[in-house]
Amino acid sequence: MAVMKVARDYIVIGSGLAGLTFALKIAEYGSVALITKDAVEESATRYAQGGIASVMAEDDSVDLHVSDTIEAGRGLCQEDVVRCIIREGPARVRELIRLGTQFTRTQGEDSFHLTREGGHSKRRILHADDFTGLEIERTLIEAVHAKPNIEIYPYYMGIDIITRSNIDPAVQPGSSQDEALGLYALNEQTGEVVTFTGKAILLATGGAGKVYLYTSNPDTATGDGIALAYRAGAKIANMEFFQFHPTCLYHPEAKSFLISEAVRGEGGILRLKNGDTFMENYHSLGCLAPRDIVARAIDYEMKKSGDDCVFLDVTHLAGYRTRERFPNIYKTCKEFGFDMTEQLIPVVPAAHYMCGGVMVDLNGQTSIRRLFASGEVCYSGLHGANRLASNSLLEGLVLSHRAAAKATDLRRPSKKLEQLQERLPEWDSGDAVESDESVVVSHNWDEIRRLMWNYVGIVRSNKRLYRARRRVEMLLEEIKEYYWNFKITRDTLELRNIALTAQLIINGALERKESRGLHYNLDYPKPDDTHDVMHTVLQDTVQRLITTPNTRVKNNE
Ligand code: SIN
To answer: Which of 260, 343, 396, 479 minimizes the number of CB atoms within 10 Å of its CB?
Structure first.
């Protein structure tokens, strides 16, 4: 008989740097179920090339890193958050090193090699060649495997967070009485739905690049945590700020493979097809301008010339150094037919990082009690309207550490919580049948990604945004119907999440009547500095029961 209820002290959703760090720390205080919808090794962290920005060099300072971050964030960063994360970063980085992460060292091996990326005034990015994320993920997974009280549930996908307001009509969703009690999760291998309960839940599900047609993100980046948190009534902020990485490999089979900004940090130059440089026309930092500016400049130049891509040139650098410094990028480009030491690399921008997310405080606490978030899924106030390169692994490390410290406040047994959790209904598939129309899922998926790319991309307008909103609303209706009638699968759940995330990005973009950072709207081409800078906060406070598709129909969701 399959186990349909799992009660642990802490529930972690996601197995990237943020989830693994939290799990490792909180495991000192109780049992942990770590749920991940793919293999435990699969996460966006694994693909991070650049590194971790942290103040490590003699000629660097917290103040300088803070001011670079705030400059990139275009007036939307919260300075106390920026300062705290940057100040605490070096200690967290040293913990990683003690755990065994091998960052690249300088030639004499006596100190770490620090690289530079767009918007940084100093060399401050620790890296492990050009596969930093893989090295960090390896270290953290080894450490997690050594902890007997962390159980990993691979290929389990969260369906919905279960809140108190779901079972108690007297509690208003999103109100101060509301709290997270558990999670329904699909066992992808058996098709069964398991109810997980805990004293605290951490969302560390990463980003949502798959909402766009072209993305540097892995296939798992489907906005799951955003959708779970929003449906649970948590506050979501600044979703209009989606960062496009300026340089992804332009090749039909390369799936927007990332060419790290560190390539420009080490001297790479952007060129047009005719060989001309252009970034000096857009910013004094040229090719190392902040990402929003570089991506928009490339988009503009491509539209002006009608070319399909621009080019990144490292042929003037010593070829052996390029091969040594960027072994992964060199090998991948070679596989696609480009020897970057001798040829220009064709590049285009692609969706890369979700700067908005589930609103959290400096302890990773969301607006719902017992629900925490860390990493790309959250909005802490660090990135503002445009993330400074390589600040994200830093944010995940610091916030997960702080969230684990805070979540220990909830560790004492609570009779009231246990009684509430006993009342959680088990999932019941009702009359749902196997789908005979999977084509609906793949068609809708494709349509969302295409319309987001065309209407809600690097350059937006009101007309395009309204058009996108109408289409997404219709698609959400279709998806809801499909979700009610057929047995759920990972594909259905991902589609439901991606559609909701798309809607939140569009709604955020429509609420912001200005251009700022990553959000550029032709109808309001300038920042509005006449008012206090605003955050676009979205929240769903509709009362609903969430047990089964049939119950949802009855409750007219
Ligand atoms: C890169 O290597 O360019 C990506 C780093 C980042 O997104 O922070």
So the answer is: 343
The whole-angstrom separation of Cα 10 and Cα 417 is 13
Quick one: 284 and 407 in the same domain?
no
Q: Is the CB of 132 under 6 A from ligand 1?
A: no
End residue of a domain, out of 422, 448, 481? 422
Structural domains counted in the chain: 3
Domain final residue pick, 351, 379, 410 = 351
Given this model, what pLDDT does residue 545 score? Answer: 62
Residues 6+ apart with CB under 8 A from 220: 37, 38, 42, 43, 44, 206
423: amino acid identity, one letter? R
- Domain for residue 131, yes or no? yes
CA of 248 to the centre of ligand 1 (A): 11
Nearest CA to ligand 1 atom 8: 390
Phi, psi of 198 (to 5 degrees): -160, 175
On whether both 226 and 248 belong to a single domain, the answer is: no
Residue 390 Cβ < 6 Å to ligand 1? yes
Positive or negative torsion for Cα 181, 185, 191, 194: negative
pLDDT digit string, tens, across residues 88-132:
999 999 999 999 999 999 876 679 999 999 899 999 999 999 999
95 is a domain residue: yes
pLDDT digits (tens, 9 = 90+) for 530-557: 877 889 999 998 876 665 554 444 444 4
Domain ranges, residue 316: 244-351
Maximal C-alpha separation, the chain: 71
Same domain, 150 and 59: yes
Sheet holding 180-187, edge to edge: 5-7, 193-197, 180-187, 156-163
User: Is ligand 1 within 6 A of the CB of residue 260?
Assistant: yes
pLDDT tens for 214-240 read: 999 999 999 999 999 999 999 999 999
What would the two tokens of residue 331 be?
């090998």
Non-local CB neighbours of 121 within 8 Å, separated by 6+ positions: 64, 67, 68
Atom 4 of ligand 1 has which residue's CA nearest to it? 50
Cα of 189 vs centre of ligand 1, distance in Å, is 34
Output the average pLDDT for the chain.
93
> Has residue 345 been placed in a domain?
yes
Q: How far, in Å, is the centroid of ligand 1 from the Cα of 155?
A: 27
Choosing from 124, 291, 460, 469, the catalytic residue is 291
> Distance from the CA of 162 to the center of ligand 1, in angstroms?
35
Please indicate whether residue 54, judged by its CB atom, sits closer than 6 Å to ligand 1: no
Active site residue 94: no
Q: Tell me if 50 CB under 6 Å of ligand 1.
A: yes
Cα–Cα distance for residue pair 310/275, rounded to 1 Å: 9
pLDDT digits (tens, 9 = 90+) for 299-327: 999 989 999 999 999 999 988 789 999 99
- My answer on whether 505 and 388 are in the same domain is no
Q: How far is the CA of 501 from the centre of ligand 1 (A)?
A: 22
Alpha-carbon distance 355 to 257, whole Å?
20
The verdict on the CB of residue 44 being under 6 Å from ligand 1 is no
